[in-house]
């Protein structure tokens, strides 16, 4: 009988230590990718890896040649044993899905566990912009308060919210806005009318959404379809009193066009959790504007979300190496080739049924 192969999983970091605790009980060799270590040692680990929990773009940004640890064609070609790659959260723009599919590599994300955190953050952005909370705080601390009427804000009650992307985050934001009696418009080509009606939203084209909304919130993934989705045309169509909010990815919107819209008064303000370059440079022009509030891609980082994501991450890896279909598989077309490669390495074929019984790790 041939010796059983032990699954090897490389990760850069867990959002919470509970992921390591869960995987420690499984028959999986877990290896940490040290971004500060010599490149050769990291490539040695990656070359033997069957699974890779992908580092985020923000994590690798401070490291020289850090982009090499994102899953592009070069990494796929070099890591011949790689069977599956997973992103830390809902976003998966750090993974070249097409390159992975061609190579028989399953691509997964961790959508869902962080939705509450991001949706609450977006609601906080909306309230901050409408009530001018950060603007008032800055004026008070700088001694430039002047006439308080200059800080007169607005209310959410009865306003119109336009959501671009009606997934877990967008759907939860709709629920959170219910007490404000807002009209909700949504643009999402992957959502049908029945689902939209069930969530109490009206599906519209992007052009109509930007024209009618008092708040426009981007919460779609970064894909070939959504890259540069929001530019000068969309900002020009917005109301001068409207606010732009994004918790998506920086490359979904045009930063230069946004800056122009803000300084010319085409829109009233913006709240940004994502940028083209992360973390953004201190001299990023957007950070110098009084009508902009910003956070450094932390919308999904709460104590609760970090733990929930870690549990979902570890559980998904248990399913993968246990021979089940990943619960958040993004490229289902890969399944036949993936199964053949999995069988070649581990000596048995995966099943489309989830192999791991669900266990509760929640508080």
Automatic annotation (TrEMBL):
Keywords: Amino-acid biosynthesis, NAD, Oxidoreductase. It comes from the Bacteria. It holds the Pfam family 2-Hacid_dh. InterPro entries: D-2-hydroxyacid_DH, D-isomer_2_OHA_DH_cat_dom, D-isomer_DH_CS1, D-isomer_DH_NAD-bd, NAD(P)-bd_dom_sf. The lineage of its organism: Bacteria, Bacillati, Actinomycetota, Actinomycetes, Mycobacteriales. GO terms for biological process: amino acid biosynthetic process. Residues 123-299 form the D-isomer specific 2-hydroxyacid dehydrogenase NAD-binding domain. Transmembrane segments: none annotated. Residues 73-330 form the D-isomer specific 2-hydroxyacid dehydrogenase catalytic domain. Belongs to the D-isomer specific 2-hydroxyacid dehydrogenase family. GO terms for molecular function: NAD binding; oxidoreductase activity, acting on the CH-OH group of donors, NAD or NADP as acceptor. CDD domains: PGDH_4. Gene3D superfamilies: NAD(P)-binding Rossmann-like Domain (3.40.50.720). It comes from Mycobacterium asiaticum. This is 3-phosphoglycerate dehydrogenase. The keyword Oxidoreductase applies. The keyword Ion transport does not apply.
